[in-house]
Structure formats: C-alpha cells, structure tokens
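Ticket #4471: structure output looks truncated?

Reporter: J.K.
Steps to reproduce: submitted the chain below (337 residues) through the standard prediction queue, then opened the result file.
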Amino acid sequence: MIREFHHIDLRDRNSFGVAQHARRLVEFETADDLRAIFAAGVPDRWTVLSGGNNILFTQDYDGVLLTPVARGIELLADEGDEVRLRVEAGVEWDDLVAWAVERGLWGIENLSLIPGKAGAAPVQNIGAYGCEASDAIRRVEMFCVGTGNRLTLDAAHCAFGYRESVFKHELRGKVVITAIEIALHRTPRPRLGYGDVEREVEARGGATLRNIREAICAIRRAKLPDPKVLGNAGSFFKNPVVEQAVADRLRAEFPDMPLYPAAGQADRAKLAAGWLIDRAGMKGYREGSVGVHERQALVLVNFGGATGGEVLVLARKVQQRVRERFGVEIDTEVNIL
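Returned output as attached by the reporter:
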C-alpha cells in the first residue's frame, strides 16, 4: 500500500517537534511499493524518514521522504535455543523488545524503550547499557534504488561499529531497508554490568527478562525526557573514542572521569560525552526555546516553538565548550537535514 502526502507539515513526524515541511512524503509497505515509487525515476533528493526519532530538520525538505509502515514479525526458524525472526521495517523497536520479552526470548532486552523503528536500528546500530542491535541482527533486507532489486546483506558485511554501519556510508542514498532478520535465545544471557542496571534489577527480585526490561525502562524514564512532552531526539552526541594516551592524560587530570574500553580497539578508549558536557558547564543550559536537558547532558531539548536551526546553534556551542575544556571533539549522533 502506498500513501502520498504533499507539502506536509513534519511537526508530528519528528521527535524534536520542529515545524518544517516536506515537498512530498510517501508511506510504503513492500519492496514492490518502492519499485513503483521509483518507476518514474530517482528523485534528485530523497531520504528515509522512519520514526523521526534521530533526525533534526533545519529547513524545509525539498525532496521525497520515504516512511516504512509494514509491521509484521515472522518466525523464520525455531532451533531449540535460537529463534530467528524477520521483522519488517515499520515495527516500533520497543514493541519488538516487548514481544520478545513476553515470549521469553533473550538478546534485546537491554535495548528497551529506545524510540524508533526496526528498519532504522541497523543504520545507527542502536545501543544502550552494554548491548547493540548488531548483537542480534543476522541479515538486513533492502531495496536497491539503482537497480530495483531486492538484496540481503549478512551482518558480517554491514560494517557495524559504535553507532556505525555501512548504511551510513557506502550504502547511504543507495538502498532502503525493508526488514531485518534477528536471532534471539531462550537460554538466559543477562548483561547487567553497565551503569545502574544490576542494582535496579536486583531491587526487582533478580535477573529475569521482565525485571531487566522494567529496570531499563525505569532508568531511561528517570534520565531521559519523553518526546511527547519535551521535544528531543534522545542522545544528540556520540561518546567520543580517543587514543589511549589522550584518555590517560585526561584521567590523570580528572580522576572521576568515566572511562570505558573501545570495543575491538585495544589502543583506544571511550569517554562519556554526557560527563564531558556536564563538566564543561553546559548541563541544564538554556537559550530561549532550546536547552541541554537538566538530567541528561547528552540530550538537547525543544521547550516549544524552537526551530531546527536554533537547536543546531546550541549543539555547536556545546561542542565548542567541550573542545575548549578538554581538547576533545564530540560528534553528533542525530541526522541533520
């Protein structure tokens, strides 16, 4: 099914709640829908607008936005411990996590309450509390805009990294993700070593799937503003990965600075961007209708009526303050258009 909208207000389609417009927006379900959409030719400008939870519009979009709406979850294989699922791109990610927890399937419970759609999960390689989408993703189904063919890419070829994937680079603007295949497990595999997770789980009676999900949801609700109440896109900045020598120098100067191993990079370390922003004096900072959230410095918020341009100006100021204070660059996690 294809539904088209023209000169559409995007205020309700982006979690920042900025009131930009798009020349054309098309909702689609299948690869055949996409083939029909592109049959008349590839537009000069197009992109996928999934749940609108990781995007900042700084101007009207003079192109075509593609929004997946198919929400099927299909059992592909049940091999005892491992269960493989095909999840269509329009499935709400947290609905998928709830679906898995209700059925006793382990693997994505630490990713509870992350906003957005399943089709966007591999692009950003979403992650939280010691877990990433790439831990569960086995294959990604996509539509190739140039050829009109359906393609499937194994996870090994997706170039997954910290908030990174091939879909942000080599395949950007070339494919549209239509579904993901994930593998979950019946054997308990709790991951509790990040932040306050273990304490919150133990307070609920121990490491069951339901307790872990409830603990993660409680932690996120306590730290992160609800986009329905206060416009935001979650974490606006990525945790910077630096040379180990830089991390050691900073740790010597700031002994309480959080420091984490950089996955797969023995000579590098990951810093906590939220801590850096806080110590740079920007946590709770406000300029007019935009600000840095008072409880989580990674989050920029729209108090109401802000433009995307105003949010971007604040983001650049935050980056500058961190650079001046620590000599460290923090990159944006949000897609800026």
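Triage note (M.O.): checked the attachment and the full token line is present. The longest strand covers residues 175-185.
Status: closed, working as intended.
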